[in-house]
Amino acid sequence: MTPAKRIAVAAVVVAAAAVGAYYHLRAPSDARTYQGWVEAQLIFVSPDEAGRVETLSVREGDAIQAGAPLFTLDSDLQRAVVAENEAMVANARLTYDRAKELLKRAVGSQKTADDAESALRTAEAKLNSARTKLERRKVVSPVTGSIQEIYFRQGETVQAGRPIVSMLPPANVRVRFFVPQATLPTLKIGDRVIVACDSCAKDLAARINFISAQAEFTPPVIYSEDERARLVFRIEATPERPQDLRVGQPVSVALQDAGERHARR
Q1: What is the pTM of this model?
Q2: pLDDT at 64 over 90
Q3: Homologous superfamily assigned to 3-42+169-264
Q4: CA 227 → CA 21, 30, 36, 180, 257, distances in Å?
Q5: In angstroms, rounded to a whole number, what is the distance separating the alpha carbons of residues 135 and 79?
């Protein structure tokens, strides 16, 4: 099972376990309230090439800034390739200089000089590529966020493209909930909703950033108060304070009336 699927399954399991508590969540009594949960769009950081994890600079739960070191992979092979290409560049430069000198003396041909220059440029390009691969053995954080999970530890070998760590930027936290068709016309992108959950901070809110265009059957972890509403539409909202929510956490989402939403904009 892929890391992404494990996250999704975990979220569903947690939500299912807490369904019974949904009806006790804090929410305005006069608001339309729907059940949902907190989801995360994780960032998976992987190496470009296979290798052995040499250093690991983070732990699960660490908060780090973009550009901070994450991990390094062994680079013996990459250093050897760089040295080999440096030698090729040096030889190609000697050949090119010799060809230019012979051309000046009218002993060599223009084609020989052109071929030597082309070989030099090719060798320099290969050297730049080798140096880039060597530099990329040291991987830094692409975003500011927190470390969610570490999949490979120091000393383990990882294949190219396999994530070593997963990260969660605060902006990638989403509140997902479902509403019946009759409610859909009253919602639009940017609307503010109230989010509540057991033991959560007060006055949590989110802004709707996605409204599904396609209906779907009620998910098995969601039990509508009105059992007649079998088809629902998926809504996602960006929390205003994502640090106060946890991935997989069941929540109650209360919709505000049009006048209140307009007043809070």
Answers
A1: 0.71
A2: yes
A3: Efflux pump adaptor protein, beta barrel domain (2.40.30.170)
A4: 18, 20, 16, 11, 23
A5: 10
